[in-house]
Automatic annotation (TrEMBL):
MF annotations from Gene Ontology: inositol monophosphate 1-phosphatase activity; metal ion binding
Annotated protein name in UniProt: Inositol-1-monophosphatase
UniProt catalytic activity: a myo-inositol phosphate + H2O = myo-inositol + phosphate
EC identifiers of the protein: 3.1.3.25
Length: 268
């Protein structure tokens, strides 16, 4: 009935690629900032909205009984128990400035739109500018452009290249700046790539050793989180909590444990 991991994975990838084609076509003429959200830095372009509409139309055509949660238009409940969680452009600020790290993120989850309760069944992160596509299916594995992925073996925290990101409000950034100031001396270096979905896939891919961020949104993390865990990585929060919008840590298991311990000391 199309709900097996393979069919859902295929549909995630078809949707993400179709959305990516639209973003690519509009790259040179996105029209700038169309609106702002939580702060003046939290921007939306016309393309974000167009792509979310495209995704919602295609999901409604392919799977009319499923729910959809999207960055721009919120949640529409379904009746099937499955919910599509979509970010039309993760890394909108990069897209706005022509920096090539932005992606379409499409996932399908069971158990509703709350990351603390959902099970991600399949996901695809399609990096539009570079054309790289990461996919994962629950219990099936994770791939980059068809190549199976395994996280790089854990290195000590002091030798780890760590990705992170920041929210858009002054209150978020004030908290995050204090954390990053205390983490930076403890690691090899820190990267702020500007797309949480890509950060997670880079951990799965062994190009970042680890990643942490506070204040993510469900659509930033849904697809990428499955790519991490299906590549053998750990997704977690602090204090034994699962990964959530409050705190997401991703790394090979032993490094995730070390990073969690360091963050707990910094945040306590
Ligand atoms: C943002 C990006 C960024 C992260 C922010 C997200 P958006 O998503 O993923 O890397 O640091 O927390 O909100 O707004 O570009 O979809």
């Amino acid at each position: 009935d199309g709900t097996d991991a393979q069919s859902l994975m295929t549909l995630c990838e078809e949707l993400a690629r179709a959305a990516g084609d639209h973003v690519r076509a509009r790259t040179g003429d996105h029209g700038g900032v169309a609106a702002t959200k939580s702060s003046v830095n939290d921007v939306v372009t016309a393309v974000d909205t167009e792509v979310e509409t495209l995704l919602r139309e295609r999901i409604a055509a392919a799977r009319p009984d499923d729910g959809v949660l999207g960055e721009e238009d919120g949640v529409v409940a379904g009746t099937s128990g499955l919910t599509w969680v979509v970010d039309p452009i993760d890394g909108t600020v990069n897209f706005l400035y022509g920096i090539p790290s932005y992606a379409v993120s499409v996932a399908v989850v069971a158990g509703g739109a709350d990351p603390l309760r959902w099970t991600v069944l399949a996901g695809c992160v399609h990096a539009v500018a570079g054309g790289t596509t990461w996919t994962a299916g629950l219990g099936r594995g994770a791939w980059r452009d068809g190549e199976p992925l395994t996280v790089r073996p854990a290195v000590p925290l002091g030798q780890a290249l760590v990705g992170t990101g920041f929210g858009y409000t002054v209150a978020q950034r004030t908290r995050e700046a204090a954390v990053v100031a205390r983490m930076l001396p403890q690691v090899r270096d820190i990267r702020r790539i500007g797309s949480a979905a890509i950060d997670l896939c880079l951990v799965a891919d062994g190009r970042l050793d680890a990643y942490y961020e506070t204040g993510l949104n469900p659509w930033d993390m849904a697809a990428g989180s499955l790519v991490v865990t299906e590549a053998g990585g750990t997704m977690t929060g602090l204090g034994g909590a699962p990964a959530s919008p409050a705190m997401t840590v991703a790394a090979a298991p032993a490094l995730a444990a070390e990073l969690v311990a360091a963050l707990e000391l910094v945040i306590a």
